[in-house]
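Running co-folding for zinc ion.
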Amino acid sequence: MQVQTRIEISDAEWEVMRVVWSLGAATSHDMITALREKMNWKDATVKTLIGRLVKKGALTTEKKGRAFIYHPTIEEQAAIDDATTSLFHHLCRMRQGQAVSNLIDDLTLTQGDIERLQAQLAKKLETAPVGVTCDCLPADFEMQCD
Ligand SMILES: [Zn+2]
């Protein structure tokens, strides 16, 4: 099934998707076992989340013998990019740089990640504006964040 519109995934549903993405395909038993161990969730909770993800079109089912195999319909990287892009679009343009900086402080990055970021930033710097304006209010309000 091809999903055209962006699928909103809740925090709990993300945990289910991470199991499926890691395994490539999973039975409900796989997901229940993994999330019982990792999150201490009840079987019924995981079953409910699986049902929601199927309804949203994030998972498809395939019957193999007596078991249902679940497959993700969205790529992990695409889902991650959608979620982060959507989050950053909620932020004032003036706050985005600081938010990225705080995030970098908070994350465990590999040397490879850091080298890639450094190269990206050096390239960005060549065309970066000196400042950006707030986009929280329409221009005719003549007010902005500081
Ligand atoms: Zn603003």
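Result summary
The chain has a mean pLDDT of 93.
The chain has two domains: 11-72, 91-131.
Job closed.
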